[in-house]
């Protein structure tokens, strides 16, 4: 069976990863690849409802409930969207995935990291990204890019977002062959050149 590729885009709010994902989708499509783009949380109809619960500033969500909601969205998304597209041989570009949960709910909120890794395995049925691009940017730059209108997660504050950033960097050290670090302080074009280089290596490897 023809196998697709699963590529995830990770990093802080304001790291610019969504722009990079969109540029990557156009670039790969121009080359004739069959590409689908998606995101967590909130890709599917049920996910959109979960996303509203998670990100609307007016909602109070406890830390453990937050963890389960992100995981519920993921379980649904993997089963109903990501896995079928991979089986169809497509390149799936996903804005945030399992590493977001480890970085935000684990390193940021302080939930048990090993437990989160196990729960991620259950949510994904063990489907793992072939490649993860981690866009790293200083917390101050990221917060400036986000601006004044913040959702429930963005509004948590600088100390939390520093922990998230360090969590991501730790994850990259633990998984250097899957997670590739990209300096996102650079210009969009420079960051995109690095993105293309890394994805080309994956496609060459087959
Ligand atoms: P979103 O608007 O998609 O942020 P961005 O455009 O920066 O990706 O909001 C997703 C928010 O949810 C973001 O603050 C990160 C957070 N998040 C978690 O805390 N845990 C998770 O598992 C996921 C997928 C996202």
Number of strands: 5
Percent strand: 5-15%
Small-molecule binders? thymidine-5'-diphosphate
Strand arrangement, major sheet: 2-3-1-4-5
In whole angstroms, the N-to-C terminal distance is 14 Å
Look at the structure and give the mean pLDDT: 96
How is the main sheet built? Answer: 5 strands, parallel
Structural class: alpha/beta
* C-alpha-based Rg, rounded: 16 Å
Helix content range: 55-70%
Shape annotation = globular
Unreliable spans: none
Secondary-structure element string:
EHEHHEHHEHHEH
Number of helices: 8
What are the salient characteristics of this protein?
206 residues; alpha/beta; five-stranded parallel sheet; 8 helices; 5 strands; binds thymidine-5'-diphosphate
Provide a descriptive summary of the structure in words.
This protein is of the alpha/beta class and 206 residues long. It is 56% helix and 14% strand. The protein has a five-stranded parallel beta sheet with strand order 2-3-1-4-5, with helices on both faces. The chain is globular and about 45 Å long. The model has no long low-confidence stretch (mean pLDDT 96). Bound molecules: thymidine-5'-diphosphate. Thymidine-5'-diphosphate binds next to helix 4.
Topology:
Layout: E1 5-11, H1 17-30, E2 35-39, H2 45-55, H3 63-87, E3 91-95, H4 98-108, H5 113-124, E4 131-136, H6 139-146, H7 158-174, E5 179-183, H8 188-205
Parallel strand pairs: 1-3, 1-4, 2-3, 4-5
Helix pairs in contact: 1-8, 2-3, 3-5, 4-5, 4-7
């Amino acid at each position: 069976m023809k196998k697709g590729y699963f590529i995830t885009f990770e990093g802080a709010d304001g790291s610019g990863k969504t722009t990079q994902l969109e540029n990557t989708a156009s670039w790969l499509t121009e080359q004739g690849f069959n590409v689908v783009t998606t995101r967590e949380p909130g890709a599917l109809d049920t996910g959109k409802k979960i996303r509203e619960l998670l990100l609307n500033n007016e909602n109070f969500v406890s830390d453990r409930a937050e963890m389960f909601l992100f995981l519920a969205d993921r379980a649904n998304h993997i089963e109903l969207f990501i896995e079928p597209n991979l089986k169809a041989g497509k390149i799936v570009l996903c804005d945030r995935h399992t590493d977001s949960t480890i970085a935000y709910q684990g390193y940021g909120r302080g939930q048990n990291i090993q437990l989160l890794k196990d729960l991620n395995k259950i949510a994904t049925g063990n489907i793992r990204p072939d490649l993860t691009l981690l866009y790293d940017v200083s917390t101050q730059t990221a917060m400036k890019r986000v601006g004044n209108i913040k959702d429930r997660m963005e509004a948590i504050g600088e100390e939390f977002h520093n922990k998230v950033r360090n969590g991501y960097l730790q994850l990259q050290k633990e998984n250097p062959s899957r997670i590739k670090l990209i300096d996102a302080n650079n210009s969009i074009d420079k960051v995109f050149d690095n993105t293309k280089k890394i994805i080309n290596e994956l496609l060459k490897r087959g």
